[in-house]
Amino acid sequence: MSVWLLCALLFSLIGRTKQDGHPVSIKEVQLYAEKTDTSNTGVWVLNVEWRDEFAQNDEFEKISYDIEVFRTEKKMSVHNETIHVMPNKTTFYHWKWTSPIPLQCTSHSVRLRHRDQLYIGEWTPLYTYNGQDLNAVETIVYPYDQVFMVGSNITFCCIVETDSDAPVDPFPTPISNRTYITKPIHFDRPSESTSDIECKVNKSFSSGGASLFIGYPPDDQNLTCITRDLSSVECRWEKGRKTYLVVNRETKYKLNGSDCEFGQCVLREVIKQTTKQVTSWTLIAKNPLGVKTLTDTADPTHRVLMRAPIKISHVADARKVDLYWSWNEKNYASFQVICQVELNGSNYNENFSGEGLSSLVLVNLQPFTKYTARVRCGSYEHFYEWGDWSEITEFSTLEDIPEAVDVWIQYFEQNIYVLWKPLTEQQSHGIITGYNVTIGNTTERIGPNTQLCYKITLGKEKSDQIITVSANNSAGQSTPSTIIPSYPGEHLKYIQMLFKWVEKVVHIKNSNGGFEMSWEKYPNSTCGYVVEWFPTYKKKQCDVEWEKISECDSDACNTWNKSGTFVDGERYTVSVYACTNDAPKLLKRIEGYAVEQKPGKVQNLRGKNNDGNIVLSWDEVPLDLQKGFIQGYNVITLLSDSETFINMTKTKEREVNLKLDPGSYTFLVSAFTSKGGGDNSTYIMDIKIDQMIAATIVGCSAAALVFIIITVLCYRKQKWLKKLLYPDIPEPKLAGKWITKGIYCTQMTEGYLKCEIQEVHSLEHPAMPESLHGLDLISSNSKVFPAHFYQNISESPVDISYDPVEKLTSILENPSYNLTMPEPVDVAQISDLTLEMQDAYLPAPNFVQNNLLVKDSESYKPQKA
C-alpha cells in the first residue's frame, strides 16, 4: 500500500507541474450587490460567485481561496481574505463582503486565486462592480433615506458632478476622482425626524444632501391571547421600548402567519366550552432594524374577557333597586358568569353569579338619594379578569320615614327653649315638611323653614313633663326624641352651688385650636353624655351647640376633643351633662379660649399725684374684649416732649405707684395675654416743682392749724373735759330714813368677804358700827364670799330683789373699778339678795372695792324671783 501511495503522489506532482503556466481554473466569476428595499439609496453587501474546474478532484476535504477587493479607480486594496470551502463539482462557490461605504460611492473590483498546501494558483483577472461616480449628473450623497440603529458609526460619501469639483467639510477624503467620504459619524440618540448630512461644492456652490432615520429594532413583549365572544381569539401584547420609526418604516406584525395590527390581531377559531383545547399563538414583529418573535399557549376557555352588558334598566324602591340588562353575545346565555356592581363610584359589597346572569337586586340603600350604577362580569368557573363596564345608569330611591332628631334644651333668661338639629339629606330620607313639638298632651306644629328652637312654658309643678320632637315628610313621622327639662330657677340655683367646687374658668392651652374635655364616669348615666358649648359673653337665645357621646368604657372619660368650630379670641362656656332617665345632670363646666388673641384696651385710665408719687389706676378690659386670659399689664413711661423712654413696669394689679421727678409724662398702659399686648391706653400728667412745694406747705399748714385749734378748745373747756373724763367722787353720805334691812361686808383673809344682814331699830336709837358711819343696825345674819365675788357685779346691771342670805350660792370674782364709767353693777348672780336705801350716793373707791354696791331705795322696786 505504501508503494501505491508513493506512486500516486509522484504522478500528482508531475501532473501539477505540467499545469504551471496554464490558465487558472476559476471560471464564471459573478459580482452583484445584495438586493434590499433600500438598495437604490445605499447598498453595502457585495456578493461574489464562481466555479472552479480544479475543485472537481476529491483529493482534499477543503479548498482554500484568496480573495482581494480593490477600489477600482485608485487601485486601492480595501480588503483581502483567505476562505475555505468544501469541494463541490456542480454548484457555484459563494462569498459575501460588507463594504464600510455604500457600493454606489465608487467602483469595486475583486480577484481570486486557488491555494492548497502544495499549490498556489494565479490570480484571476479583476471583476468590477461599477459605482455611481462614473455617470453622476448631480451632486449626491450616499446613503440617504435609510434606517440605522442607535449607536451606529456611518461613513457618508459625496459624488460630485465633475472631476474638478471638491466638496467642503465634512467630506475631506477622496476615494476616486469624483467621490469624497467622511470620517465615521456616530449616532448615539434616536430621532423621530430625519438627520440630514449636506455636501457643498466650492466651485458652483451646488450641494446635495442625505436624510436618514435613527431608531431601535422591535421590542414587543408579553403576548397574551384571549377570547371575548367564545368564538374567536384576540391577542394582546406590549410594545416595549419605542422604536422611533414611523410611517412605512414602523413595525409590521404577523400572528400565526396572518398580517395584523397592534391591538387588532383576531383569529377565528372553534372554541368548545366542554372540552380542553390548548392552543399556541406566534407573533412576529419586524421593522427595518430587526425582528422579534413572541409565543403564547393557553386554553381559550380559561382566558374569557367578557364584553359589557347592554340596555341597563332599573326599578327603584326606598331602600333597594332591581337592575336589568341584556347581552350582545349569544354564547353568554349558557355561560356561568359572576358580576360586579359599582355604586356611586365604589364597588358594591356583594357579587352576583348565575348562568347567563341578566339581573340583580341592590339592598340597604339610602332613601330619597340619587345613585349611579354600572355592571361588569367575568367567568365564574375559570375566572380570568373582569370584563368591560356597562354604561352608567342613574336612579333615585323613594322617600322613607325620617330618622329621630337630635334634641337639647337651653336655659336662657329664666326661660326654657327646646332645640334640635336639622336633619341631613341622609337623615331626612326625603323632604322635611315640618316638626311636631309635644309637651304633655299639647302638640305644636313647626314649619320646616323656621328656627329649630321653641320656647316652652312650664310651671314649677310641671317641670318634670316630657317634651318630644319629631320630624315629618311625605312618608310619615320620625320616632319622637324626648327630653325632660328642670325648672329654670332650680337649675340656675343648682349651677351656682356647683360652681363652688367645679372649675369655673380653665386656661385652655390646646395648640389645635379646640377644647379637650374629660370627666369622671357618672354611675346613673343611662344614655351617655352631652357636651354643650356657647359664647360666654355673646350668648343669644338658641345660640347653643352640643354633641352627644356614648357611654364610656372606663371610669374616666376623655373622649371629647373639638376643634375647627370655634372663633379665635372668643370665650366659650363648655358644659358636660349626664344623660339620665330624668332631666340632664350637669357634671362639669369650664370657660376658656380655643385660640387666644391680643386683648382690647384697658378702660378709664387715671392718675393721681401725691407729692411726686404718681398712682396710676385703671379698669380692666371689658370681658367681651379680653380675647384671652389677662396675664398682666404693661405700664410704659415716656417724656411727653421727646417721647424718651423712661421705664416699663409689669404688674398683675390694676394699679401702680411711680416715683418721678418734675416734668411732663405720657403713660401707656396695655393688657397682655399669651398672644401679646393689646392696644395702649394713654394718660398725660404734668408734675411741677412749685406744685410740689405748695402741696407740702399747704399740708404742713393744715396740720399745724388743726393742732392749734384743738389746743385752744381744750384750754377753754378744761373744766368740762375734767368733769367728763375725770369726775370728782363725793364722800359717802347717809341721810334720810333707812328701811329696816341692810347688808354689811368686811374683808377677810385669803381673799374672802364677810357680809351680814342687819335690821335697823330706828332713827332715834341708832346702833351703827364705826365702819358704816352711823348706820343703825338692829340684827344681822352673816355669810362669807370670795373676794372675786364682785367681778360680775360691775359688768351688767340688773334689779335686786330680797331673799334670805342663805340662798346666795354663787361665788364671783372681785370686780375692778372703772372711774370713767360709773354704771350700775351686775348682781345677777345674787339676785335673791336685796337692800334698800332712801338716798342714793356715789360710793368712794374704797367702799366700792370692799363693800357691796346697792341701788337707790327710791328708784328701786323689788321683783319677785
Automatic annotation (TrEMBL):
Keywords, alphabetical: Glycoprotein, Membrane, Receptor, Repeat, Signal, Transmembrane, Transmembrane helix
Fibronectin type-III domain residues: 306-400, 401-491
Compartment(s) of residence: Membrane
Keyword Transmembrane helix: yes
SUPFAM superfamilies with a match to the protein in the record: Fibronectin type III (SSF49265)
GO annotations of cellular component type: plasma membrane
InterPro entries found in the cross-reference section: FN3_dom (IPR003961), FN3_sf (IPR036116), Ig-like_fold (IPR013783), LIFR_D2 (IPR040817), Type1_Cytokine_Rcpt_Type2 (IPR052672)
Membrane topology category: Single-pass type I membrane protein
The keyword Signal is assigned to this record: yes
Record field: transmembrane: 692-715
Signal peptide limits: 1-19
Homology family: Belongs to the type I cytokine receptor family. Type 2 subfamily.
Protein name according to UniProt: LIF receptor subunit alpha b
Native source organism of the sequence: Cyprinus carpio
